[in-house]
Records
---
Amino acid sequence: MALKGCTIGIFCDFSFEDLEVTYPRIRLAEEGARVIVIGGHPAGTKYTGKYGYPVKSDICVDDMRADGLELDALVLPGGFAPDYMRRNQRMLGIVAAMVAAAKPVAAICHGPWMLCSARDAQGVPVAKGMRLTSFCAIKDDLINAGGEWVDEPVVVDRGVITSRTPDDMTPFCQAIISAVASTLSAPAGSDGGK
């Protein structure tokens, strides 16, 4: 139970990649984390994945702190959902705040689009200067946002974890567990070795 006592959020919207929400939700809960599904619509909204799997949100992003720092980590799934999520300023603000605070942010498939749209205090995409990966279709978006795109199953850079497709779910979740567990074991006032 490496993540006992942690709260991990998963952003969600319609047409999410089914495995990229359900697999981390189950796997991170197995490690003892409290996993909450966060949507842009009222709590209890039923989102349906690309292949029809339903997930109900636990909370609306508008009901969270604006910086999202009540979370120990955040997961950004792919599918078509990131195209909706990147239009939500509150979600983008939480992504930027968590990256700035060096809290683990994990994005897979089209999820890294959020790293292009989320901006730091100076208006610079949080992807700028980061080594990362994604589904190949958004490679150019990440490069244009200033990222260094690589074709690897999982990439970790400054607390941001990225992966390519559902085929990478196992190393993706292992990287999330490792990153969150290392922040838990870091001494108070430390940045968790980042």
---
Amino acid sequence: MGSKIYTVDAFSDRPFRGNPAAVCSMPADEAWDEPWMQGLAAEMKHSETAFARPRADGGFDLRWFTPTVEVDLCGHATLAAAHVLWESGTLAGDKEAAFHTRSGVLKARRRGGWIDMDFPAEPAAAVTDAPAALVEALRIRPKFIGRNRLDYLVQINSESALRSVEPDFRLLKNVTGRGVIVTSPSESGDFDFVSRFFAPGAGIDEDPVTGSAHCCLGPYWAPKLGKTAMFAYQASARGGTVGVEVKGDRVILRGQAVTVVRGELA
């Protein structure tokens, strides 16, 4: 039987919102072929394509590719992959999904109409020597700049300012790291904070909803807001909502997902 392919809109409860991810569900005996996986991700053109393969221990190997590179951590494509496993019957709905990845074992579990994912916390440390190109490319006045192993984190004062950011992507592409998270307090009572995510160096100018960015945003906002459980909105053109709960060195990400395409690779 050939590999199945799906497109899932993650961090949304309806189609054409949230962040679309392709999920390639592979047979257990299928060998990883990195050039082929990268080629399929480029063909699919989503910000990430996830490749899931069953393991003998009942878990799944999981890898993520943008159209141009493999990445170490991805939230929305993990959410999409878990959704596909349960929806397709590959995994019973009451069973936990355990994904073996470059960032360790990531677990996902259904809770009502939501999916909880157990991810590593990725806190950002303040930096005083941020590249000049970062601020110049964002065309903003930052309140805080930090960095973790993946991304830069930039806080600005207002949601209205965040929504109007128009980066110079050519310049931002030269900033080292996976991407740049820009965040602010929310001006709505529905959310605790808002964000946007830019990663032109990884082939994605703006990612619609970035689960892994909230592994950094959760630890950043929790002490500022005096709470460990928060609800966030990523203010891209598509937009999406992410539940975030900080638990020590782990972060629980909560989201919904809906399948929009099912197929089989030739």
---
Amino acid sequence: MPVVGRHNRHRASLLLAACALAVCGITARGDLGAAPAPPETETRALLVERLSLVSPAALEATVAAAQALRFNTLVVDARALGELYFNQGLEPRAAALASQAASFDPLAAVLAIAHARGLRVHARVSVTLVASPADLPAAPGHLINAHPERLMVPRPLARDLTLLDPGGQLFFDRLLRWTRAQPGDSGGLYASPVSDEAADAIVSLVADLAARYPVDGIHLDDVAYPTAEFDYSRAALEAFRAEVLGTLAPQARREREREIGADLTAWPEAIPDRWAAFRRDRLTALVSRIRRSIKMRRPGAIVSGAVATASAAAGTRHFQDWRAWSEKRLLDVVCPAPDTMDAGSFAEQIAEARKGAGDNPVWVSIGAFRVSASEAVGRIQTARQLGAQGIIIGPYGSLVSPPDGLDYLTRVARAAFAP
């Protein structure tokens, strides 16, 4: 959809949301009828995606609605698709903010407004997903334009792309054509968690954010490989080969090199289990570095992470060893995102996530746009019954789109957040 169309739809959503606030009798003071606010015993977070952050009016309407509906936390996009929704960061400012004054800082504005109203703010950072192939960023400083060599490579392209200059146009064009032809969760461009340069860049970016903004937490999203078919980039393959050889004595090293050969793609094929463990360990190391960078600059900030709920999918498809992250206290809060429409399967996945998180808090992500309001309320109740300490509902922009405006969220809030 053209950018102008998306912005027009969002403006319409804001107008309808404002109307819904008035019609439902919900004011900026947070009143839902005459009932007192519920006790602050759980995190009730509203996910605020990037298109709700593109203007001061959008921010005001979003925060007012969140407070009125008895949410106590906002999880807001700070880095999405490799662009920043805060100023003077280490990557380009989001193109969607081009019509606003350069002084407009969405994250700073959300923090000021939300904190004044008593709401907590967690900055959401997309770690590996950096671009949609359908709408490529034009900024020269964007990762895909400045450093295509830091992108993940899928296995089907591995042998061909290892022969090309990873910083060249031919390399990027081949990767882009393949990506655009893929359905589902492979349809994006991803930064490698293996590449030292890519890892250093995201750690520095998060450290800068934590140092300059009084966020209550940082929420890590897309902290995973899209599938087990990634990352076969030259940098990752070279790092794997070097790690394997580094554990061997000189004679054994020469024998292993002769055995596998000079083709970098042969190394994962020769020792697949170790290749899987290598990628898993590199992602865990990246999460550890990100956590340290946050805690050094903002010790009280909560580090949360979106995780796959199915054990097999998390460990073998996405190499996301989040149970180890939880055990090692790399995450303060585990945020499972069930990928099912079925209520029974939802409960099973939450129970598994609650068990895997140990004594760490769990906030359950509910993609409310996928279910009815009554089903969303049922899922909130299920999450509570299974021991979750919080929920994250969103994305806000989708839930207030025409023609319903705030009606959906109002019904959910009245049923689930009533005192």
